[in-house]
Design a protein that fits this description.
Length: about 140
Amino acid sequence: MIKISKEDYNKMIKQAEKEFPLECCGLLAGIKTEDEIFIKKIYPLTNIDQSSEHFTMDPKEQFAAIKQMRTDGYILVGNYHSHPYTPSRPSEEDKRLAYDGNILYGILSLQDQEPVLNFFKIIENALVKKLKWQFA
């Protein structure tokens, strides 16, 4: 089970809406236990691709975020990005670029009137597992 605060959930939505029609992106920091992942902080980053169909996180911002996570006592538990016009599921490009089967991939869709957030595990470009989440 994944747990995220309503505040961080709302921050993700605000970022996605502000950056629309581009994809937004960021990192997820938190704590892992044997059967739960607690997202404790999100780190909104710049999509240097400036695209509505794909994203690349700014490397300098990524480095600073990882450094801050360590300072705060958290670990990298995943990343997230928005899909301005498509559903909350990994695209073929998302699957191809998924580099770590142990982290979360959050996808926030703005396709419908209400935003939809889902978290996935993506393993070896093929196996996609949708994970359950709730507000902490």
